[in-house]
Design brief:
The complex is a heterodimer of chains A (336) and B (186).
Chain A: H1 37-54, E1 68-73, H2 79-90, E2 94-99, H3 111-120, E3 125-130, H4 135-142, E4 146-152, H5 158-172, E5 179-183, H6 190-201, E6 205-209, H7 219-225, E7 231-234, H8 237-241, E8 246-249, H9 255-258, H10 265-272, H11 276-279, E9 287-289, H12 302-305, H13 312-330
Parallel strand pairs in A: 1-2, 1-3, 3-4, 5-6, 5-8, 6-7, 8-9
Helix pairs in contact in A: 1-5, 1-13, 2-13, 3-4, 5-6, 5-13
Chain B: E1 2-7, H1 9-26, E2 33-38, H2 42-57, E3 63-66, E4 97-105, H3 109-120, E5 126-134, E6 146-150, E7 158-162, H4 164-167, E8 171-176
Parallel strand pairs in B: 2-3, 2-4, 4-5, 5-6
Antiparallel strand pairs in B: 1-8, 7-8
Classes of the chains: A alpha/beta (336), B alpha/beta (186).
Chain lengths: 336, 186
């Protein structure tokens, strides 16, 4: 097939002046640990262009015509799944969604078999969520389709981290030297883990805060051995909030109380809920974020969750643009 | 490889002034006109045309920028995805006379993509095409309404347009490969 001419009249693809002219190296998106800052910036800039498409009356471009995107979810999800499917449809890809709880998985089909079946059906991209950390890394070895990790166990949720970064950048211009407080159940949070990579690569300083029982064991050692000096760990929410530009709350999984990690919900609320009073410790216009779903009245008081500083709904809207950018960047091509 | 300058800064300026006159003449003024520059070098060219039209007609013509990456017909054969720039057209295109502006007119494929992109934004009254350089070798049945310079080329030659706002200088250069060396990329 002939290529379109670029402005120079040659057949080389246009790589002109975006701030990041990074060569995109990924066939898969598993986590942000193997992303460079330039690659993250390329995703953000591509998402800017996608956001324009979302403002149109007809929110559809023909870019991924003939590509098939399959969402394979072994865990419940509303926003991530809907957001990936809308992103794929906006780019004119065909989408198939497989809900593991209603599929052959209940007949005992293994993850590997399911993946091979989906590949055989012609999936170009598989967006998968699995309760086991590392499941998408297994998938990459089993099939040739591109894999996007939409959340694996406690490990990673890269598209969420990217949309968090995008949301912050759209309000504050950049992440360089911002203080971002992430508060709550860090231990079980794949969102926190992906953000640790992504946000620090963008130059932000992170304060991770939660009760000791909900901080991963060996966190300090991890920070040291991965050379992430811009991450500090804090038990007191008041200290974490001091001078923060962004406050990100994590969902408290209520079943954690049964497992003995929390003495009582009331105590957690008393010590860690983001209230108006606590928020006043952060910078005047600090952003309030939450990956959702929210337990209102537990990790955040309702007036703050829906208050003027909250960008929680914007995060959801930005998720579509970010996922369109990811699908565009990994779809097709002969770089397999 | 040898490089030769075919259009100087002064020649380019004169050609663009003439094209601006032609646009005004054809459209009987500049009302309902929108100039849409194709990323990257079409955008500053569109702005210059708008400035000339402003001085002729005393009407400020809206200038937009259009990125066609999402409409290309060769995405699945490219190993490196083209960077997507933002499309930004300040007014509704419906019922407007659109003049698409690009630097080099070659196969016509990017113009095809641009027309698809424009029509996704609304229903313009008409779409016209203004180019700084027409180098021939069309692969689609598309022609330009306004041409700055016609420059017949061989397919293995390369036309490089430099625009002050992007490249620091105004000129058009033809790059001819040495005999026996193929410069074909496609």
């Amino acid at each position: 097939m002939k290529t379109i001419e670029t402005s120079a009249g040659t057949a080389t693809p246009d790589t002109l002046p975006l701030a990041s002219t990074a060569v995109w190296q990924h066939n898969h998106v598993l986590d942000l640990d193997d992303f460079t800052r330039e690659e993250i910036e390329l995703v953000l800039e591509t998402a800017d262009a996608m956001a324009e498409v979302l403002t149109r009356e007809v929110k559809k471009v023909p870019t991924l015509r003939g590509k098939t995107v399959v969402t394979l979810f072994y865990e419940p999800s509303t926003r991530t799944r809907a957001s990936f499917e809308l992103a794929a449809k906006n780019l004119s890809a065909d989408t198939v969604s497989i809900d593991a709880s209603k599929s052959s998985v209940v007949k005992g089909e293994s993850l590997t078999d399911s993946l091979r079946t989906i590949q055989a059906l012609g999936a170009d991209i598989i967006v998968m969520r699995h309760s086991q950390s590392g499941a998408p890394y297994l998938a990459v070895k089993e099939v040739n389709s591109s894999i996007i990790n939409a959340g694996d166990g406690w490990h990673a949720h890269p598209s969420q981290a990217l949309l968090d970064i995008y949301t912050i950048r759209s309000h504050l211009g950049k992440l360089e030297n911002l203080k971002i407080a992430i508060i709550g159940d860090i231990m079980h949070s794949r969102v926190a883990r992906s953000n640790m990579w992504g946000m620090t690569k963008m130059g932000a300083k992170l304060a991770l805060c939660g009760p000791t029982t909900l901080l991963p064991r060996g966190l300090d050692a991890f920070i040291e051995c991965c050379q992430l000096p811009n991450i500090i760990v804090e038990n007191r929410i008041e200290t974490a909030l001091e001078n923060a530009d962004v406050v990100m709350l994590l969902r408290l999984q209520l079943e954690r109380q049964q497992s003995g990690l929390l003495p009582s919900l009331r105590e957690y609320i008393e010590q860690y809920q983001l209230t108006a009073e606590r928020l006043s410790l952060a910078k005047a216009h600090a952003l309030v974020m939450h990956p959702g779903p929210i337990n209102e009245g537990i990790e955040v008081s309702p007036d703050i969750a829906h208050g003027a500083q909250s960008v929680i709904e914007e995060q959801v809207a930005n998720g579509v643009a970010i996922r369109m950018a990811l699908l565009y960047l990994i779809a097709g091509g002969k770089n397999k | 490889m040898s490089e030769r300058t075919l259009v100087s800064a002064e020649d380019m300026q004169r050609a663009l002034v003439r094209v601006a006159h032609e646009i005004v003449e054809r459209n009987k003024g500049a009302r309902d006109l929108i100039l849409v520059g194709m990323q990257t070098r079409g955008v500053p060219i569109a702005k210059r045309l708008a400035a000339t039209i402003q001085s002729l007609e005393n009407i400020s013509v809206p200038v937009g920028s259009l990125d066609i990456s999402l409409y290309r017909d060769d995405l699945s054969s490219l190993s490196l995805k083209p960077a997507v720039h933002r499309t930004d057209i300040p007014v509704d295109v419906t019922d407007k006379q659109i003049v698409l502006v690009d630097d080099v007119f070659y196969t016509g494929r990017s113009i095809r993509a641009a027309m698809d992109a424009l029509i996704d934004l609304g229903r313009p009254q008409s779409i016209q095409l203004a180019v700084l350089v027409d180098r021939g070798h069309r692969e689609l049945p598309i022609r330009a309404d306004y041409v700055g310079k016609n420059i017949p080329t061989a397919k293995n030659e390369e036309i490089k347009v430099e625009i002050k706002e992007v490249d620091g200088e105004d000129k058009v250069v033809i790059v001819t490969p040495d005999k026996g060396v193929s410069n074909e990329n496609d």
